Amino acid sequence: MKKTRITDSHTRQKIFRAATEVFELKGYAGARMQEIADRAGINKALLHYYFRSKDQLFMAVFQVLLKKMFEKITAIFQADLSFKEKIRLFLDQHIDFLIKNPKLPMFLLNEMSVNPSITESIKETLHYGELRDMIYEKHSKELKGYGIRKSDMPQLMITVVSMSIFPFAAREMIAVMIPQMLDNRKFNSFMLERKEFAADFIFSALKHRKK
Amino acid sequence: MKKTRITDSHTRQKIFRAATEVFELKGYAGARMQEIADRAGINKALLHYYFRSKDQLFMAVFQVLLKKMFEKITAIFQADLSFKEKIRLFLDQHIDFLIKNPKLPMFLLNEMSVNPSITESIKETLHYGELRDMIYEKHSKELKGYGIRKSDMPQLMITVVSMSIFPFAAREMIAVMIPQMLDNRKFNSFMLERKEFAADFIFSALKHRKK
DNA sequence: GTCTATAGAAGGATAGAC
DNA sequence: GTCTATCCTTCTATAGAC
């Protein structure tokens, strides 16, 4: 077997990578097929040869990136650890992940906001409803000790996740008030510090939460 | 004086309102002058008569909306209240505000992310650097009691603000895991509950924070 | 598979009549 | 101020040669 699978040819990969960069940076509506072609070092016709249309190229990229994001978030909560350990691990790993993919949150959130139907074709693949319940069942004793009922879980989980995601999505807005945040080194070290800040913050809130 | 100011003519207002709606919904790149004209009940030529170009129409809208957002956030922190009272007031008022303007956060965050230079023309108007320091000075005694140093303020303030903003920006992503959130009534009542959840969460975290 | 050339549609902008 | 008609550029997409 000499040939690699057609669906993973070298050119296809180059196009996919270029498209990922451009879409992440400009969004679907702002992206140009020409720019993707340039970045991939080929011409427009070849984009259409491999991916048929802008829509299909976009969906291929979007689907992969959304999955990447969700897997990062959920993988950690599958592990065999206490709830608190999971929180700490999540903040640690997720912030590292986002430092490597700083534009990813904004890209995903915006595309979903502008075109909500975009997830419909993927929702079955992601069916994470079960996971949500599972988290509580797995830690119900520990969580009850913190005064967290099952019905509080959405509020709590959204709060935890926003600790890592929000500063990346809102970086430019933050920079309006704190101009140093435009500097990559400063912003990244701010986010590294945030691992501990967020963990302390959440643990203190849990421990002493009003019941 | 019969005539109202030309700059605030009825038509200009209609266009401005229509543009606001379309830009908020689709973003700059995704918005169409035709759609704005349709929604305003006039034709494209008139858009250009009043606002010259898509760019200028967009900037007019963006500037107003950014200011609206920032003023809502900062106004509260100017008041003569304790820090904790300000937090509670902020969550209460800001969540009410965002329920009325649910697409506003995503719109602003995305446009700034995609085109960071967009704020440059406005930054002077907003000069909020001073405010940031002021907040700490005004409450330094109270904040020290919570174990918050001046250098912790960015982490803390970003956390507070994300409590209200993030769920609106991430609504569609949240809905992937909690489908009920697609329902407006459910989502809004979730956000109303969040006022108390967030306040309790933050106060507990402050009170018992590791020094 | 990859390229050049070009079709064809869409969108922003303007000219000119009323 | 407002409209119709149209220009011109940009962008997606395809035809066809190699």
Structure write-up:
Chain A is mainly α. Chain A folds into two domains: 1-52, Homeodomain-like (Arc Repressor Mutant, subunit A), CATH 1.10.10.60; 62-210. In chain A, 77% of the residues lie in helices and 0% in strands. Chain A has eleven helices and no strands. At the A-B interface, helix 1, helix 6, helix 8, helix 9 and helix 10 of A face helix 1, helix 6, helix 8, helix 9 and helix 10 of B. Chain A binds a DNA duplex (18 and 18 nucleotides) through residues 9, 11, 32-34, 42-50, 52-54.
Task: Please supply descriptive tags for the structure shown above.
globular; homodimer; 211 residues; DNA-binding; mainly alpha
Strand-helix topology:
The structure is a homodimer of 211-residue chains.
Chain A: H1 10-30, H2 33-40, H3 44-51, H4 54-78, H5 83-100, H6 104-114, H7 120-126, H8 129-145, H9 153-169, H10 171-177, H11 184-207
Helix pairs in contact in A: 1-2, 1-4, 1-6, 4-5, 5-9, 5-11, 9-11
Chain A binds a DNA duplex (18 and 18 nucleotides) through residues 9, 11, 32-34, 42-50, 52-54.
